Each structure stands twice: as C-alpha cells, then as structure tokens.
C-alpha cells in the first residue's frame, strides 16, 4: 500500500527537511510526490542543472523509509525558455496569448518546447532512473485542467492541417466528410484550413469543430508520449502515470491512459459543487478513473484541507478527511497521496491548505491523516487490486460529449447531466457500476447504458446487437443514432444505426425548455414521473412500450420501449427522465437484467455503500456523509475490519464515520 503526500522541499529551508521527513514517518507516510513544478530550480539557466538539492531531499526522506514519485516539471516552463521562444505560449480562440505567471501556459505542438522538454526529462531520467527511492514517475501535471488543451496558435494551425491530411488523405474527402459545400466553405488544399477560432457569429462547421477537439486531445496524448518514450528508454524499470481529472473532458483520458502503467486522479470533494458538496460527484470521478484502464488507480492529490486560490472553499470538518479517504479506497484507489504536506507561505496557492498549517506545527488534520494511515496500512494489503465486481457499465463517449458541446440542441442541458442521472441511480440504488469506453468489451456485464449516444461509432451497433442476442441488456436514450461519426446527420430513419436493435421508428421530436415537463404513465395509467429536456414520438415496429406520454399531442404514444433481442433486451428512453421517472424505469431495467444491489447492509440515503470484490473476496464500505450519526441494518453477522469486531443487527455509524465489513 502507498500512503503519502505531495511534498515541495524547494519551498522550505533545508534545515526544515529532516523534521518534515520525521513527522511524515510518524504519520505512517511511506511515499511523496516531488519535483513536478521545480523546473526553474532544477535548471535555473539554460543547461545549468542543479540536482543536488533534490538528491539531498530524497536522501533525507529515504532515511525515514519514504519513497518518491518523481514528476517531470514540464507543466511550468521557466521564464528564460518563454523569453527565448515566445511562440511557445498558448493562444485562445481570440488570439490572446495565455501569458506567463500561471502554469500549463505552453502549446503542446511547439517544436521549440519539445527540444527543452526532451532535455530536462532525459537528464532527470539519467540521474534518477535507477535511484532506489524513486519508485514511479508522473508526467507533467493535470493535462486538460481549466481550459489548457485547445490552443489556437500558428503551430497548432500547421499541426492541425497535417493531422487532417493524415486522416483524410485527399482534400475532397475532407470536403465531403465536413460538408463544406454549405456556406461556400469548399477547400482546395489542407493549407487553406484555419482553426475554428472566434467569429462574430460563433457557429463553425460541426465536423471541423469535432475534429479540432479530437486533434487537441491527440496533441496532449502525443506530448505525453514524447516524455513517456524517454522514460521507457532510460528508466525502463520504473512505472509511469499521469494525474488526471476524473470527469473533465478536454482530453480523451481513455487514450491518455493507454500507454501508462496505471492511472491517477486528483480528488477534491469540497471543490466539486462547493456550495453543496455531493459525495456522488467524488464517487463518479473515482469510478471514472478506475475505468480509464479498467484497473485500480492512485489518488495522486487528495484533498487534505480547505482549497483556495483567491477564495477559500469549505474547511473539512473533523472526520471528513478520513471519510473521503475511505471513499477513494472503496472505489478502487490503491494509493493515497494528500495534497499537500504543508500549506505554502507564498505564491498563488498560499490559501490551498495541506496537512500542516502555515506554521508547520502538526494539528487536527495531521493527526486525522495519521490515524487513517494506520488503519489503511492494516486494511489495504488485504484488498489491494480488488475491483468493484460491477455487472453494470455506463459508456462514456468523449466524442459524443464534444458533439453536444458544439451543438447542445436543448437549453441548459449537457451530456454530463444525462450521464450523471444514470450514475445517480446506480449510486442511490447501491448497485456497483463501471465506467468504460465504447471500445471496451461488453462481455461480463449484464447491463450496458449509453447516455446521449448521438453519433454512432462504426461497429458499435453491431456489437450491441451481438451482446443483447446473448443475454445482455442495453439502454439507449434521446438522440441515439442521430449522427454519423463525422458529425453529419444520418439520413436513415431515426434512431439510425440502432433502429434494428431497438425495434422502433421515431416519427417526430422536440425540445422541452427549462422547467417544461411531460407526464409519463405506466400501462395502468399510474404516473411514473415526468419527461424533461426532449421528447421523441415513437412508433413501435418490433418493440413494446413500457411507459407512455400522458399529455400533449403525443399523449398515449410510447415514451419508453423494450425490444427483445435474442435472449436479451434493448431499451429506449424517448425523453429525459426526472429522478422519480429514472428510478421507476431503471428499476424495471435492472430487475429484468438480473442486477442485484449490495444486500449485506441496508442504510439511509446519507450513508454510501460501496464494494471491492474479486477472487472470492468482498469488502463492503459503509460511509456516513452526514454530520450526524445514522443507523444501518446488517443482514447478518459481519466482521468490521477497522475495529476488528463482529457486528450484527442494527449498528450506529458516527457522523462522517466509516465501517468496512468483510
């Protein structure tokens, strides 16, 4: 098990370092992340490398039994590099230079920057590639965080043109795929193509917009590979990761994770909808990260205090740090590194609090982390590597999410809201669920849900038909099959590529604006909830209706259908479902698919239930997110792993408390 912190010795006097290492060891910390923002300290001037301070810090930490994840410092190129090559700066879609003074201000596609990156990464790999204390590498920091991926500079225009030529080969192929005959946009050469930058009327060709998002994501993956190849060559025995952002969507993290040894996440529960933090959001980010490689992961930055740049977010109450840590472990984290060790006295993050306050004296958060670490050092070795044992999966399609960003079609609605509606159902129903890509095998799952799968990726419809035919259950919903993979509308009768699978024909449709709903009823006329966002008017060809519209001109027509396919079923939700409607419909779907919730424990809404299972083992986590104690009911005698005692019947879980049952 790895239990640690993010540590920045360059921020503190050297005489403090031994005390830091001693306090870490006393708190059970076994690993630090170090160096990811230290380029100007490592190379103050061109070619003048000063690694001695890092050597000394690693040696002091090693003396206390603490290992290190070493970060490549490429998220923060020094000022001297930017002054030499000002074309490295990113530009936004209005042509404004990102500027110096923050981080991630570089362009992924700048050849001058690539030279400097190769130099610093090579020198670091040569020095630390066989270092006893360095057990892994983190490449850069938080690709795709806070609008740092899509650049509109001249280098990106040239790179985009080449990317398009590699993809389409012939300019008339591109013209056809994009439909450039519209608005007289036909191109005669790839060199004519501009980036989809700001215009007075901000509506670009949808095919171009989607390809630019694909290109921008690929640029980040390619930039990571530039470093990955160096590390693999020079330091082949040390695993490599990158700290991703869960549900952020600028980069396709399935692609970004492809060549990494393991995925990592930065988790800040109080930063997610901070006005009213919702544990479902943190759980979703954790499950999404487990899905990137369909394996367990590390939390490379875990909230340990109140975050804050210019404004402070809520301070974790006593017990919340431990609670969040166990939530991460429950969803597949095999390592926890708190951000940060000590709250910095200067710079942009002086209000981003760590385990230690500004004065460096251990207090409540340090002590809570130490107690949590002591528990996890006992528990995690027993469950390390165990996944969720999920039999349901939600397909996450970055490209369909990008498509809906480009053309939302409805007011105040996004792909991620529809995605979250399904995830909320599984979370609230205590049914473990995996987040997978549409390239992943559906085998082994009883149910696969594809939210807003508007663009039909070639081959997916056929794969879903085979999956359903052999007993699987599929759920598709509004706008499914509307478009081709190039972001053009499909001229086939809706739902396009999925018509045979779903056994329906859509004859009309419309949007429902904010606050508008349509009543949905069951066969006996009993209400099941309301449709929101959208409505499809459905004609059943082979399918049967399981819910009907109960108002408006489509009253009495199907709102939700089920089609028998071989020994499985394919469902279609022809409207957005409010929470009551979602519960009613998905309960029917899950029952027919044979999905079972966690049954060992019954708990109120504020108590999250999660599971790690595999190889004949299973561990049930009960996590109280309420600030007051709650009662839970155990189906039978269960061993509680933290206290090492058997519990049965009714048990009381304290405010922000955690039980782990085996």
Structural notes for this entry:
With 662 residues, the chain is of the alpha/beta class. Among the domains are: 202 residues, 3-Layer(aba) Sandwich (Rossmann fold); 61 residues, Golgi alpha-mannosidase II (Immunoglobulin-like), CATH 2.60.40. Helix content is 31%, strand content 23%. It has 17 helices and 30 strands. Strands 12, 13, 14, 15, 16, 17, 18, 19, 20, 21 and 22 form an eleven-stranded mixed β-sheet that branches. Strands 7-6-5-2-1-11-10-9-8 form a nine-stranded parallel β-sheet. A three-stranded antiparallel β-sheet has the order 23-26-29, with no helix packed on it. A hairpin with a 2-residue loop joins strand 24 and strand 25. It starts with a strand and ends with a strand.
pLDDT below 50 for ≥5 consecutive residues: which ranges?
A: none
- CATH-wise, what's the superfamily of the domain at 392-593? Class I glutamine amidotransferase (GATase) domain
The helix content is: 25-40%
Seen as an oligomer or otherwise, the chain set is single chain
In the CATH scheme, the class of the domain at 392-593 would be: Alpha Beta
**Radius of gyration over C-alpha positions, nearest whole angstrom:** 26 Å
Outline the biggest β-sheet.
11 strands, mixed
Shape: globular
CATH architectural grouping of the domain at 392-593: 3-Layer(aba) Sandwich
Class inferred from helices and paired strands = alpha/beta
Distance between the termini: 19 Å
Domain Beta-galactosidase trimerisation: 390-595
Family: Belongs to the glycosyl hydrolase 42 family.
Catalytic activity: Hydrolysis of terminal non-reducing beta-D-galactose residues in beta-D-galactosides
EC number: 3.2.1.23
């Amino acid at each position: 098990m790895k239990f640690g912190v993010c540590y920045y010795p360059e921020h503190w006097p050297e005489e403090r370092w031994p005390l830091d290492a001693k306090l870490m060891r006393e708190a059970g910390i076994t690993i630090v992340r170090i160096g990811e923002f230290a380029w100007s300290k490592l190379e103050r001037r061109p070619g003048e490398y000063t690694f001695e301070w890092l050597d000394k810090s690693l040696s002091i930490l090693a003396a206390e039994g603490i290992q290190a994840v070493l970060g490549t410092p490429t998220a923060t190129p020094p000022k001297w590099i930017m002054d030499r090559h000002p074309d490295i700066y990113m530009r936004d879609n209005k042509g404004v230079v990102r500027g110096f003074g923050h981080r991630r201000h570089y362009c992924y596609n700048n050849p001058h920057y690539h030279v400097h990156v190769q130099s610093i990464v090579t020198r670091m790999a040569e020095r630390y590639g066989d270092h006893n204390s360095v057990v892994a590498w983190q490449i850069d920091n938080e690709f795709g965080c806070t609008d740092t991926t899509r650049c509109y500079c001249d280098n990106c225009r040239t790179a985009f043109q080449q990317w398009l030529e590699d993809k389409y080969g012939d300019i008339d192929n591109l013209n056809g795929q994009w439909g450039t005959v519209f608005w007289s946009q036909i191109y005669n050469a790839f060199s004519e193509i501009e980036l989809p930058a700001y215009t007075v009327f901000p509506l670009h060709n949808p095919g171009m917009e989607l390809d630019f998002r694909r290109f921008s994501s690929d640029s980040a993956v390619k930039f990571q590979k530039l470093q990955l190849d160096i590390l693999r060559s020079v330091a082949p025995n040390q695993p490599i990761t990158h700290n991703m952002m869960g549900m952020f969507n600028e980069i396709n993290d399935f692609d970004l994770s492809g060549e990494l040894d393991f995925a990592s996440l930065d988790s800040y529960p109080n930063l997610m909808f901070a006005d009213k933090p919702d544990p479902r959001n943190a759980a979703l980010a954790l499950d999404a990260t487990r899905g990137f490689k369909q394996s367990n992961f590390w939390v490379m930055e875990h909230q340990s205090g109140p975050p804050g740049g210019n404004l402070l977010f809520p301070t974790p109450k006593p017990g919340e740090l431990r609670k969040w840590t166990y939530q991460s472990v429950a969803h597949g984290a095999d390592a926890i590194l708190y951000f940060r060790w000590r709250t910095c006295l200067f710079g942009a993050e002086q209000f981003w609090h760590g385990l230690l306050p500004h004065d460096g004296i251990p207090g409540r958060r340090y002590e809570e982390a130490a107690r949590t670490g002591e528990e996890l050092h006992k528990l995690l070795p027993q469950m390390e590597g165990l996944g969720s044992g999920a039999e349901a999966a939600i397909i996450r399609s970055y490209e369909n999410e990008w498509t809906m960003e480009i053309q939302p079609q409805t007011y105040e609605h996004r792909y991620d809201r529809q995605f979250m509606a399904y995830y909320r159902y599984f979370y609230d129903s205590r049914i473990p669920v995996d987040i997978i890509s549409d390239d992943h095998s559906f085998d082994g799952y009883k149910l696969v849900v594809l939210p807003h799968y508007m663009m039909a990726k070639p081959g997916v419809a056929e794969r879903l038909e085979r999956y359903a035919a052999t007993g699987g259950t599929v759920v598709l919903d509004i706008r499914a099959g509307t478009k081709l993979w190039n972001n053009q509308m499909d001229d086939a009768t809706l739902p396009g590529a999925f018509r045979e699978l779903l056994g329906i024909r859509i004859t009309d449709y419309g949007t429902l604006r904010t606050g508008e709903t349509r009543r949905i009823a069951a066969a006996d006329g009993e209400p099941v909830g309301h449709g929101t966002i959208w409505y499809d008017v459905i004609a059943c060809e082979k399918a049967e209706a399981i819910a009907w519209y109960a108002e408006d001109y489509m009253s009495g027509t199907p709102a939700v259908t089920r089609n028998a396919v071989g020994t499985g079923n394919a469902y279609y939700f022809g409207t957005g479902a409010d929470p009551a409607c979602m519960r009613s419909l998905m309960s029917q779907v899950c029952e027919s698919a044979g999905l079972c919730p966690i049954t060992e424990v019954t708990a109120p809404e504020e108590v999250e239930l999660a599971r790690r299972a595999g190889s004949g083992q299973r561990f049930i986590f009960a996590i109280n997110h309420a600030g007051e104690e709650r009662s839970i009911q155990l189906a039978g005698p269960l061993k509680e792993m933290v206290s090492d005692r058997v519990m049965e019947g009714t048990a009381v879980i304290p405010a922000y408390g955690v039980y782990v049952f085996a």
